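RECORD TYPE: inverse folding
INPUT: C-alpha cells
STRUCTURE:
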C-alpha cells in the first residue's frame, strides 16, 4: 500500500485483490499484508502529525521490505522490538521471509496497462565480513542483488545511486549523498509503479481552477474533470471515490474531508480498522469528480518516527544487537525514504526508495606502526595545567 497525503485530499493507493485462501496460515502473505498496512498507518500518523500544510507520500511496502531484510540480521531484544514495530509479533522469522517472498511474487503478476517493479539490493563495505547465512536469506527470500563495494572510492555513492535511478525509471536519482567511515552496509528497496486509468480523464476538460489550502489561501492548479459511474462513499465527515487502473486490480482512493472537520479531523479518524469498515461501504454511483493534476517528491529520515513506534533499540549504538548479520558490532544508523508520485489525465506514475544504513558501533581506528629506534624527543606535561615538567631528548638510550 502506498499512502499519499496531499493538502486537503487524502489518497490511498492500494492493491485490491480477491481474499486469499488460508489467511490464517503462517505461510500466507495475507498476514504480512495486514501487518504492513497496520505499520503503514502508524508510520503515516507519525509523519503527518503537525504537517497539515505539507504533502506527504510514503510507500509502507517499500519501508517494510527494507526493514524486513534488516530484521534477518537482528537478534535478541532488537529483533523483538523490530517485529513489534512491524506488526509481526508472534511470527517466526522463517514465516516472515516466506510471506515476503510470496507477496513480492504476487505483486509482480501485473496486468496489461500496469507496470509494478520491485527490487532489493545489499551493498556491503568490502573490508567488513558479513555472515553467509544472513546474505543467503536476503538473496533467497528477498531476491536481493548482492554487491561488495569499496566505500572509500570517490564514486561509491554514485554507484549505489545509479542502481536506484535504474530501478525507479529515473524518477528517484539518489538515496545516498555520501558514505561515512562508520557506514558498512546499505539494504535498499526500490518500487516503481505506472498505471493507466481504467477510464482516463479528457485532457480537453482540464482547466486552471482554484484549490483551497489548509491555511485558507487559494492557488490556481490544473483541474481534471470526469463524469460517470464510480465506487463512491459518503459518510459522516468526508466523501470518497475509487479510481481503478487498467483491469481494476489496483486502485487509487481519494478521501475529501468536509469543511467542518478538515484534513486534521479526517486524519484523526484514519486508522486500519476504520479504513476496513469504510472500504466495505463503497457503492456504485453516478457522479462527477474534479481532481488536481499534480506531481510530488518527498524525502524523509524515518529514524525519529520509527523510534517512537518502538524501534529505538535498533538505533542504539550501545545496545543494538545485529549479531546475526556480522560479528562486528552494528546498529541501524538511519532509515531514509524518498518517493515520487505524479497524477495526470492518463494515469499515475510513482516510485519509492528505502535505504537502511548499518553502522559500526565502534569504528576501528586506523592502525599504525611507530618504532622509536632512532633519536627522539620527549616531554612530561601536566594535562590539567599544561605545565611541562620534564623535557628532553634520547640520543643514546643505552648509556
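DESIGNED SEQUENCE:
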Amino acid at each position: 500500500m502506498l499512502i499519499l497525503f496531499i493538502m486537503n485530499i487524502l489518497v490511498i493507493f492500494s492493491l485490491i485483490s480477491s481474499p486469499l485462501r488460508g489467511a490464517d496460515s503462517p505461510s500466507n502473505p495475507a498476514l504480512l499484508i495486514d501487518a504492513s498496512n497496520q505499520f503503514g498507518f502508524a508510520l503515516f500518523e507519525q509523519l503527518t502529525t503537525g504537517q497539515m500544510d505539507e504533502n506527504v507520500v510514503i510507500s509502507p511496502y517499500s519501508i517494510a521490505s527494507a526493514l524486513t531484510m534488516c530484521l534477518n540480521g537482528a537478534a535478541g531484544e532488537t529483533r523483538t522490538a523490530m517485529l513489534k514495530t512491524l506488526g509481526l509479533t508472534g511470527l517466526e522469522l522463517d514465516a516472515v521471509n516466506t510471506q515476503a517472498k510470496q507477496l513480492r511474487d504476487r505483486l509482480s503478476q501485473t496486468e496489461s496497462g500496469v507496470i509494478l517493479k520491485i527490487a532489493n539490493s545489499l551493498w556491503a563495505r568490502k573490508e567488513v565480513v558479513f555472515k553467509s547465512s544472513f546474505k543467503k536469506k536476503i538473496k533467497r527470500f528477498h531476491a536481493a542483488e548482492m554487491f561488495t563495494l569499496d566505500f572509500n572510492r570517490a564514486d561509491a555513492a554514485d554507484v549505489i545511486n545509479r542502481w536506484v535511478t535504474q530501478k525507479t525509471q529515473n524518477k528517484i536519482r539518489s538515496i545516498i549523498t555520501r558514505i561515512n567511515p562508520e557506514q558498512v552496509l546499505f539494504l535498499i528497496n526500490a518500487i516503481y509503479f505506472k498505471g493507466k486509468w481504467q477510464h482516463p480523464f479528457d485532457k480537453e476538460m482540464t482547466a486552471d481552477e482554484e484549490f483551497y489550502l489548509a491555511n485558507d489561501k487559494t492557488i490556481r492548479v490544473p483541474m481534471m474533470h470526469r463524469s460517470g459511474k464510480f465506487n463512491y462513499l459518503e459518510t459522516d465527515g468526508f466523501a470518497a471515490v475509487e479510481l481503478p487502473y487498467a483491469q481494476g486490480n489496483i486502485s487509487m482512493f481519494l478521501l475529501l474531508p468536509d469543511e467542518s472537520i478538515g484534513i486534521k479531523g479526517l486524519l484523526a479518524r484514519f486508522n486500519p480498522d476504520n479504513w476496513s469498515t469504510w472500504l466495505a461501504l463503497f457503492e456504485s454511483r453516478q457522479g462527477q469528480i474534479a481532481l488536481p493534476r499534480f506531481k510530488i517528491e518527498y524525502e524523509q529520515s524515518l529514524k525519529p518516527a520509527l523510534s517512537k513506534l518502538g524501534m529505538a533499540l535498533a538505533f542504539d549504538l550501545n545496545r543494538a544487537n545485529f549479531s546475526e548479520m556480522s560479528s562486528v558490532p552494528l546498529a541501524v544508523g538511519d532509515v531514509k525514504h524518498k518517493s515520487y508520485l505524479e497524477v495526470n489525465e492518463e494515469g499515475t506514475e510513482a516510485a519509492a526508495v528505502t535505504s537502511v544504513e548499518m553502522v559500526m558501533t565502534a569504528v576501528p581506528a586506523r592502525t599504525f606502526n611507530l618504532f622509536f629506534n632512532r633519536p627522539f624527543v620527549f616531554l612530561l606535561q601536566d594535562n590539567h595545567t599544561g605545565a611541562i615538567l620534564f623535557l628532553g631528548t634520547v640520543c643514546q638510550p643505552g648509556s
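NOTES: Residues 1-9, 15-26 have pLDDT under 50 and may be disordered.
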